[in-house]
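Lab notebook, bench 4. Still working through the backlog of constructs that have no structural model yet. Next entry is a single chain of 295 residues. Request: give me the structure tokens for it.
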Amino acid sequence: MKKLMLIVNPSAGRGGYRYYFGEAMKTLADGGFRTELFFTGGPEDATEFARAYAAEFDAVACIGGDGTLSEVIGGLMKIPNPPPIGYIPMGTTNDVASTIGLPKNDTIGAARRIVEGTPHPFDVGGFGKDRYFAYIAAFGAFTEVSYATPQDQKRALGHLAYVLQGAQQLGKIEKLPVRVEYDDGVFEGELVYGSMSNSTSVAGIVRLRDEMVSLGDGMSELVLVQDPGTIDAYGEMITAVLTRSFDSKYLKVIQTRHARFIFDRPVAWTRDGEDGGKHRELELCNYHAPVRLIF
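Model written out:
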């Protein structure tokens, strides 16, 4: 039998992994996996587990949200020739699952995909020095919502907690002067939002068109949103985003391998929905397919 390392975040998805967990383990066993469990107890546990033990297994999988998957990938980036990664999404938003079409909050269905799926090349983002992101690094409007929302609200309210927290920030949107250097050019101006991503789904709300995103092509999507200035223009831009018709003059979507952001003061970032710290200058890059994701 093949050896599977399964990293479990017991807090994700309001502890939803417990439902049908036994049946999911049977699905993995019937599929030829002998599974060893690792339970996280705090931040970065998944990273350390993957770094320390993944090389001993034929495959690694995790149960949790996108943050858990991000931690596992961060650990795998620290070892040579890492095993492929399976994902049982049990988080609140599950952007990566939306991108690759995994069943959400369905332990048995996701376990079946680990058994029946195929490893696919998956690009990983570089976040400054020796830090990584699985699908997005972002700053600006509403990016604080994902990590500012209290954990008890996430567990009790699910995605609604993000909406409520976001509503409180409507009056806090600010214009950030920035210089952005990327593969084919430079942008200088004021932004209300910026990100570099490898996902069609961002925060479960904004979706890039499927044909715009290839998970293993060595390119990331740079999204830059300028301040429209008026309520009517804001409405026009939001409509364009929600309908995925990215032709607004206030919004740019650019494919690039790297991006360097230079601000006039430290600016708060998120990294896969978690607090990424404040940075006056930050280098992001795309590592071309260093890991393989099973789906």
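Notes after review: The longest strand covers residues 274-294. The longest helix spans residues 231-242. Flag for follow-up if needed.
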